[in-house]
Amino acid sequence: MMNRREFLKAITLASAAPLWVRLGPLAGSAADAAVATPDRMLLVLWLNGGNDGLNTVVPYLNADYKRLRPTVGLKADEVNPIDGGFGLHKALKRVYSMYQQNQVAIVHNVGYSKPNYSHFESTYIWETASPEQRFHTGWLGRYLDATDPASHGPVRAVAVGMDQLPRTLISERYGATALNRLSDFSFTDDAKPDAALRRRAFKAFGNGAGADGSMRAKFVEAQAETVTAVEAISGATKGIKGSLTPAQTVATMFGAGVGTEIGFIQISGFDTHTSQRSAQSNQLAQVDKAIGEFFDKAATLGLSDRATVMTFSDFGRRVGDNASGGTDHGSSEPILVMGPRVRGGLHGTAPDLKDLQDGNLKPSMNLGSVYASVIADGLGVDPTPILGADYPRLSLIG
Amino acid sequence: MPGDDRTLIAHLFRRAGFGARPAELDYYTRAGYSKAVQDLVSGTPLMGAEPSFDEALDPINIPVQNLRGRVLVPALNDIQTAWLHRMVTTSTPLVERMTLFLHDHWATAYRPGDNIDTPELTAQNNLFRANALGSWKTLCHAMIEDVALSCWLDNNVNMMRHPNENLAREFMELFTLGPGNYTEYDIREAARALTGYEIGYRLDLTGPRNVMVFKAANHDKGDMIIFGMGPKNFMPHEFVDTALMQDAAPLFLARKLIETFVTPTPTASFVARISRELVSSGWQLPAALTAIFNSAEFTSPSARAGLVKSPAEFVAGGLRALSRASGDDIQRGISWMQRAGQVLYDPPNVGGWPVNDGWIGAGGILARYNAAVALADLHVAQAPLLPTEPRLRATTPDGWGDIFGVTELAPETRSAMEGYVRDAKDKTDNAIDAAMITLLVSSPDFSLA
Question: pLDDT, tens digit, for every residue of B156-209?
């Protein structure tokens, strides 16, 4: 395995810098904060809890599916049929209409070898793209590390509506910013006469701080990043009225002229051990709503052609019902990649319900192949050094 | 042996409580570090005070507002404020600190639709408090019958014919052993051992609440093999005993306690040492905590400022330092905590809250700064003490540090605060004090423990 210096060198040589265009629609009010708006943007949507893939991209005609899922299995009138004998869960209305416009790529049965059924460990593997735990940074965190010229804006990645920074965005060098509402993102003593003096003192906590890895060094670094981010965001989002959902917030940040190119949001509630039919339907409806909100907002900001959305979840779920009207933790899952640049349709090999391992699907597509395709074609960078392996790529994005 | 100096005692109280006030620092500097450790781990009221009973904290006096079925139960906000009030006013701070630790460890969230409502969470919280300085083993046995945890992890629908693995898995992975110390087979078998419970109903002081009831007839009668033991028919509590007999069990808890109170990166030998305390004491938490607080790893100056306080510790510490515990103050504290990312009784997932640098994204840092602004303005505008008493204040940065339990300011913090005073246009007490509190509370010195 290469060391860090070799890693960075490989990245620098291999990566073509993304194209940049000048200034987003809010640039007029962004003044000093304005930097180029990235021309490729990626929103990652985490279905937190382990979404049941077989009831998302549903093999509703499959005899084994019907046999193994007498309770939670979906019938023909509960899906919108797509290709290959599959149907999309009816809660995914917007996704279905995008599918019909060839804007949804579905990758079948994605996972990794030796599936782990723990929420934390499996999510960790998905977020680090590292089944052998060679990496502890996130796959998109390493993308940020790998593409680091000074021309990038102050807020390259945002996770919205998260209690903590998702590991996907954890990098060696970049702090990502967790936001709930853009309007929260200001110092409440801005109007006091001594605000500038207070801010000067606050910044001075970090004077002379070295990067010695101590908790204090991390803290003052986070404080400095906070001041930078607050100033950039307040400059860039002046004049935005009303409250925004997380998906709308990401789209707004993409267009805010602060260099944001990666967004991360989550919809929780997919750990459907019980009463899955109603629970998953409600949660998928929220996913669908978020996807719609994101693309609608992106459209009003003139960003539609640049934006791609992809989903992932902790894991898929057990093929057979449990007795509580739910499903237990499973292995592989379908991945949805969406947007105008996507090559719509089904990709990869559908899961084989006759060939199970302990009642679980055997993954037929490595998650590394999906990430490699998204990094290469969605973000325009060589994925091999970022992922630490040369995964075969799919043609997901045109 | 550790030195008896004021700075070390301040360090102890930042970790084992919600910070020391000047009177507490004075008292324990005279009485000695060992006495401070002893009082904290034994749950003895600080400074020789009589045990107190605050009527306002009695569950029967908590107002009820929600209509659940035909029964009135407290609102979530009521039990949140009741607990924060305890943290701010307690005379046995390690009891509350350990209760917070246990809430994070056995993270269970408010889900009234799934029978996890305020009476159930209050019962769980009281269980944590009763065992906070007691036996880990007793607590583990009680937790598999705790109704909130059981419903949170689906053990209420774990049936003989159709086991649900959720509690079995998390009991081993997150609560007692850690990943790598059990197999998928163990999980499937343990789920069977945990069958036989159903939800019942009990009349409590505050009204009826759900409880778990064991029905032997509903317990899986078959043989099981767990951790290579058996085949035999494991009853639920036999499974708990078997889990705690694993070598990994005391090491797992020792590591978690050390990560909470000492360092995120403990050495294997330190973990082993604390683990032996747990084993030799028969799972007594005070034995492990005493060994931790007396360890060279804890008392060494290099251990200081090595952890990030959670928002609960940060807010409770700020309110406590300024003796602010009115209903209004506590309510504000709850909203500051929420902005900083922590809602009591609603952890983000079964793994609990983030730790250390997980708290200090830009949103968290900003929320702490804004909480500091609000706390400072409150203190300056309306002192909580008697009108005849002067408002608590200091005239130097280090004096302010002392009020907030930080006896040694970093030079950068001191000089930043001095720089403010030097260049301030408005040099009235109110303006200077508000800025000093804002800066001290938003400084790394106060957020780090």
Answer: 999 999 899 999 999 999 999 999 999 999 999 999 999 999 998 877 665 667
Say what percent of chain B tops pLDDT 90.
Answer: 79
Please write the tens of the pLDDT for every residue from A13-26: 222 211 111 112 22
A5 and A102 housed in the same domain? no
Q: Which residues of A touch B335 (CB under 8 A)?
A: none
Phi, psi of A121, rounded to the nearest 5 degrees: -70, -40
Q: Are A375 and A384 in contact (CB under 8 A)?
A: no
Alpha carbon distance A382, A396 (integer Å): 15
Structural domain for A277, as ranges: 37-185+237-387
Residue A216 tokens read as 């204090």
Q: What is the pLDDT of residues B3-35, one digit of tens each?
A: 458 999 999 999 999 999 999 999 999 999 999
Chain B hits for A326, Cβ within 8 Å: 164
Place of tokens 């303006």: B431
**For B147-151, what is the mean pLDDT?**
96
User: Looking at the domain assignment, is residue A396 inside a domain?
Assistant: no
Per the prediction, chain A carries an average pLDDT of 84
Burial class (CB in 10 A: 0-12, 13-18, 19+), A345: middle
Instruction: Say which residue the tokens 């100033």 belong to.
Output: A231
Same domain, A172 and A269: yes
pLDDT one-digit tens code per residue, A186-198: 899 999 999 999 9
A:79-138 residues touching chain B, CB 8 A cutoff: 117-121
- Percent of chain A residues topping a pLDDT of 70: 83
Q: Tell me: pLDDT of B221 over 50.
A: yes
pLDDT number for residue B60? 54
Residue A252, domain CATH: 3.40.720
Whether A304 and A262 share a structural domain: yes
Please check whether residue B435 is in contact with residue A198, taking contact to mean a CB–CB distance below 8 angstroms. Answer: yes
DSSP, collapsed to helix, strand or coil, labels residue B68 as strand
Q: Which residues of B181-200 are buried (b: 16+ CB within 10 A; e: fewer)?
A: bbeeebbbbbbbbbbbbeee
From residue B25, alpha-carbon distances to A130, B8, B31, B51, B321 in Å are 49, 10, 10, 20, 12
Q: Do A175 and B373 touch (CB under 8 A)?
A: no
Given this model, what pLDDT does residue A152 score?
66
Q: Flag whether pLDDT at B74 surpasses 60.
A: yes
Q: Among candidates A4, A24, A3, A104, which has minimal Cα distance to A297? A: A24
Name B448's bridge partners: B308
Tell whether the model's pLDDT for residue A245 goes beyond 90. Answer: no
Which A residues, 254 through 273, put their C-beta within 8 Å of a C-beta on chain B? 268, 271, 273
Contact status of B185 with chain A (Cβ, < 8 Å) = no
Residues in chain A with CB shorter than 8 Å from the CB of B306 are 214-215
* 8 Å CB contact of A194 and B166: no
Give B 91-150 residues with CB within 8 A of chain A.
Answer: none
| Cα(A308)–Cα(B243) distance, integer angstroms | 46
Residue A199 lies in a domain: yes
**A215 and chain B: CB distance < 8 Å anywhere?**
yes
For chain A, the domain total comes to 2
| Lowest mean pLDDT segment, chosen from A211-215, B48-52, B326-330, B386-390 | B386-390
Give the whole-angstrom CA distance, residue A327 versus residue A51. 10
List pLDDT tens digits, range B385-399: 566 677 899 999 999
Classified as helix, coil or strand, A161 is coil
Domain presence at residue A398:
no
Instruction: Check CB contact under 8 Å for B348 and A185.
Output: no
pLDDT tens digits, residue range A85-117?
999 999 999 999 999 999 999 999 999 998 989
Looking at the fold, whether A79 and A167 belong to one and the same domain comes out as yes
What residues of A are in contact with residue B448 (Cβ under 8 Å)? Answer: 215-216, 219
